Amino acid sequence: MSRLHIVGGNKISGEVKIQGAKNSVLPILAATLLIKGKCVLRNCPKLSDVESAVEILRYMGCTVTFEDDVIIVDSQGAKNYDIPDILMRKMRSSIMFLGPVMGRFQKARLCFPGGCELGPRPIDIHINAFREMGIKVIERHGCINCNTTEKTSSREITLPFPSVGATENIMMFACTLKGKTVIENAAKEPEIEDLQNFLNKMGAKIHGAGSGHIVIYGGRELFGAEYKIMPDRIVASTYMSAAAITGGELYLKDVVPSHLSAVLSIFEKAGCHIKKGRDYIYFKAPEKLKNVKTIMTMPYPGFPTDSNPVIAASLIKAKGTSVIIETIFQNRFKYTSELSRLGANIKIDSRVCVIEGVEKLYGAKVEATDLRGGAALVVAALGAEGETYIDNVFYIDRGYENIEKVLKSLGGQIERI
Ligand code: UD1
Fold this sequence. Notes:
By secondary structure, this protein is α/β, with parallel strands linked by helices. It has 14 helices and 24 strands. It is elongated. The structure holds uridine-diphosphate-N-acetylglucosamine (UD1). Uridine-diphosphate-N-acetylglucosamine (UD1) binds at residues 23, 26, 93, 121-126, 161, 163-166, 187, 191, 305-306, 328-329.
């Protein structure tokens, strides 16, 4: 099993191209099941979560190739409508296959893994929405069986919370039902707009993604499409955090600055200098960051929960006290006990994290507790004196393509051993 070895102290500076978005490519891969033909997806990041989604597609009978950053899915031969437990457990967000599988086969069987490293991850919003769309759902022995004879839909579904995955699942299934489906209180994340653009390229008619009101005119003939995945805003926020804690200067290429507004405004409060272009961000951190009084994670366009850990890590050495309030995931702060091993002064009370800035951090042996928590350890280790060893790197590999290679190219002393 590999671990990361980091010697902190170097500034993270230079030019970095941001990889394609994990949270965009995953639902788009699932959506390829909606047609019987070929889709070509560009700018796909090489991540273990993406490999897991590819494995699910292959299990279902699709032919998939993944070379460089291009995935080609031929879903002509898809025949299986179940996803075995072992594949479901590899990637907890595999629930997003439910909508496309139902759209393709009018039946589906999948096991759900229950809780995840961020706390319980219920799927009640997905299931209730599917029931409203005429799907019969039976939950038994940790698995769900679904079937439907419904061919038309003229429904308005109001989500109790703007769940990203539920919004995507409904959009994908609704494409296959004749009539108009409206989603109210839909999630507004940019990845949903990316999915809409892809589905529309396949011949669907959807508008409103990016707002809380999405309209899907279903039942149209769908065909294969070629599509370029949007850039990963969470990865961009991670590399900016690494530059922020080390007093570095970055030029981020292939980003959409408007997707990062909430994150950039926090960095500006911390004293960073930022310039934005159409598809780039220039980022310069001061020698020492200022504290940020309050950061509250919220659904988009609020501050993203996935950026909570890396921003927290960047603020450990800031002047004064910073507070982060987590409103999306119950167990988001598990990583903070590992940060304390590096010398961070962090206190957690339920969903509130109080960071008292410290003068110095010191290298230590730590373990990633989850994907973004693992990235937070990398950020902190780059800002620490001496050597850090990070175990459980497989968490980090779920969302970051070659993290050590990228950071090394930016001046970091980091290697995989
Ligand atoms: C997606 C992202 C994840 C991000 C999250 C929130 C992907 C692959 N993953 O996850 O990186 O952290 O959005 O921005 O895109 N909930 C329920 N019942 C449900 C569904 C969700 O109670 O049926 C709750 C969840 O437990 C959580 C909150 O709603 O507390 C947000 O979940 P959701 O927006 O669905 O996140 P995901 O789609 O799982």
